Amino acid sequence: MDKLEQEILDTIAEEGDIDRGEITPDSNLYDLGIDSLSSLEIMVALEKKYDITIAEKRLKNVNSVREIIKVVSSELRKKQRKHYPA
Questions:
Q1: Which of 12, 35, 83, 86 has the most CB within a 10 Å radius?
Q2: Residue 28 sits in which domain range?
């Protein structure tokens, strides 16, 4: 697991008040006890942490930790391309 994944899992644990050992990239948010409000709080924390903006429509189908990782990774790549165009 890379550093970004670790940081995201740590943020989910902290914001969701979940034991970090219970969370893996394959974890389902509902199974972890994360409802839509908790999910939103997690995404806001990740936006602040990485200075990114995640469109609300991208969050509608996010049901797993892996999907959160994909969304954050995608937004970070967009941010990097914006600041360092090829």
A1: 12
A2: 3-83
pLDDT at 86: 58
- Assign residue 46 the CATH number of its domain: 1.10.1200.10
Number of separate domains in the chain: 1
- Cα 57 to the chain's mean position, in Å? 15
Task: Compute the Cα dihedral for 67, 72, 78, 84 and give only its sign.
Answer: negative
SS3 sequence of 40-62: HHHHHHHHHHHCCCCCHHHHCCC
Task: Give pTM, 2 decimals.
Answer: 0.89
- Contact between 32 and 16 (Cβ < 8 Å): yes
First to last CA, the chain: 28
